[in-house]
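Q: Okay, next protein. This is Tyrosine-type recombinase/integrase from Paenibacillus aurantiacus. I've checked the sequence twice, so it should be correct. Can you predict the 3D structure?
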Amino acid sequence: MPVFKDENAKKNPWYYVIEIGEGGQRKRTKKRGFKTKKEAQAAMVEAENSLNKGTYVQASKTSAKEFAAQWLSAKEHSVNKTTYDNYDRHIRIHIAPYFKDQEIGKISDLDCLRFITYLRKEKELASRSVKDVFKVLRAILDWGVMRGQLIKNPTRMIDMPKVEQQEVQVWDTEQVRKFDEIASKHREYVAFLLAYAAGLRQGELLGLRWKDIDFEQKTLSVVQTLSHDGKELTAGAKTATGTRLVSLDDKTIAELKKRKRLVAAEKLSAGGVYEDNDLVVATSIGTPLGPRNMLRTFYRLISEAELPELTIHDLRHTHATLLLKQGVHPKIVSERLGHASVKITLDLYSHLLPNMQKETADQFGKMLFGTN
């Protein structure tokens, strides 16, 4: 059948009409949204070929908002709570408000490119966040194709948004020592120590239990995390490799023993009011320490120490950077941090170590040629 032009359409006026078999009857279906006659004709030929092969899929007319909600519901029991909450946030704050009631089957690659621009320019999201949101949209549309509700995934026709290298802020050895001296006088000292001495994420150190620490072997196991809102303790780490064993230095072990004595005294004092979650870092009555409370204390200590301001996550970056500068193999650093691959570690920190290549060349020259 021929293609048509809608003279009243302000943009993409061309469309085609084809006949499909449904329940033993022939039914006409219309596909709109083509910029030129040639585009409409090409799409019509593709649809007719699919009909002849028996592979034609009539795109779902479900709204993008509703379709995303269906996908999220299907994910509820296959991902951990943190991942699910991230998906929910991306859909609720970005994807659903942008696409709204637009039919999921009518989202084009141009729509997806405009969505990326919207996230970058209007929402002013960081490049990493843009990519994370876009990955959720891609997964939703892939699900539609897999279920036979979409003809194709338009995000597969465009490149994944590029993540720009973000500058990582870290402290040097002297700055860490200065902060350590100030923080050691505070009740929550161990929390910060676990970040820059063991490389733990905030959720990991706030979810750490006493039974996860082996004082004889001087190790801790990362097997539980506290959610970002501080309301839920969840088994498992951020990634599969995030569940890991981390060796500890003597100073950290000594401070953990001191902390354990403090917790025992507080538990005895609180009596029946104490809520025993077996947490290393907790309030005086045993409840999880809220991430926001930890953050307020952190910035107060930074101010008192008169140090450059960092985020709590930057303490983890500091741990990694100091190890690498010390000459620790990146694979070991990657394992301590729980990265999915050593490539992530190198991508994050190699630009902070401009002297590493020079030192390597000097060492090689000394070994092979006896040069200094």
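A: Here is a summary of the prediction. Residues 3-53 form one domain. The chain has a mean pLDDT of 87.
Q: Noted. On to the next one.
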